[in-house]
Amino acid sequence: MEFKANRVDEANVEIKATISKELIEKNLDKVAAQAAKTMNIQGFRKGKVPVAVVKQRYADKLIEDAQGEAIRKVLNEGLKQLDVKNEDLIGEPTISKFEKKDNGSVELEISVACKPQINLGDYKSLVPKVKAIEVGIEKIDARLTEIASQSAPLEKITRKRAVKDGDFAVIDFEGFVDGVAFEGGKAEKYPLQIGSGSFIPGFEEQVIGMKYEEQKDITVQFPKDYQAKDLAGKDAVFKVTLHEIQERKVGELNDEFAKQMLPNEKDATIDTLREKIKEQMVATEKATYYREELKPQFLDTLVEKINFALPKTVVEQEINFALNGKIRSMSEAEINELKENPSKIEEIKEELKTDATNSVKATFIIDALAKAESIEVNDQEVTQLLYFEALQMGQNPQNVIKQYQEAGYLPAIKMSIIEEKVISKLFDEKLEK
Question: What GO molecular function annotations does the UniProt record carry, in alphabetical order (predicted)?
């Protein structure tokens, strides 16, 4: 067997080899003999099946196994020659060439991705200035009023006034498209909060002004991107009957209200509640500031300033992932055009290359920063995140976790948590006092 192993750079290894016909036949004898020991074939005792019979019956599978044995030998010897250890590898090696020759030999090329060697340098000097988050008393009081409104009980309006913005209108409705009722378009005694934006655009606005037991036809148009494709972009008429108007009665914002909102807080006052609200608002605004303003700027700087070799196969996987996402968003006509013009796919991949490369580079940098900052995320943290997100969406947490697990998304979620922790730690250290 002839082979040549080459370390292209710190993150990429290429191994080229010619596997002789003799080696493949030797491996074939070996795997056939092993199979004969356990195989059940009618007319022979178990373990006594002649190797020749095994070869005859399972030739294709055995040849495949024999070739696989040879490939593993090439890979192991190539990595040993270059002193590349298994813990240095990323993912599975890629066979970029497997060509059978007329003389029975096989020409082979294997690409191996290795973990990049990253010198972070003085990375903390690249962290941007982080301004302190200030939340004024007006915002705090506005949030306090909002909380009071959300927690206040609903009360039926006894006076015969019309529906106004902010009311809860208890309605019956049934929707029709081209005069035909459609599935999911009917409900009775439905409590619709006017101004919530929970219904089709234009619906809630037309409920405003309705009075008790009034019936009204409301005309709307479904959004073009509506989830039910058979309704998307179509005009609809809803027959609506108003039965009741409800509104929230907000009580006085005092210490008693604070005690209701903070049942575990001893001697809570309205000022205590204001302070809690302030803490929550500062945390929320800080997270948004970090995520939307500072993080993109910081990652761009890291990608620009920290240079190292990237594993080509990982970059190629990221390009293909981005390509698949782009194709999923295409129309049928655009997809057909790609099928008729395959070169267009290569053009799109070239367009996606820079962003994909930077994304891979940023991920490796974040991983290196996490090690430098001694930041770790365990599987329990990933599970907890998915658990609470599932509850917020009204879904079964165990089912959601299982779906993510089966789809292979857990490592990506774990990496996103690591990224958030790294970013928060570095930015918090630069936060103005």
Answer: peptidyl-prolyl cis-trans isomerase activity
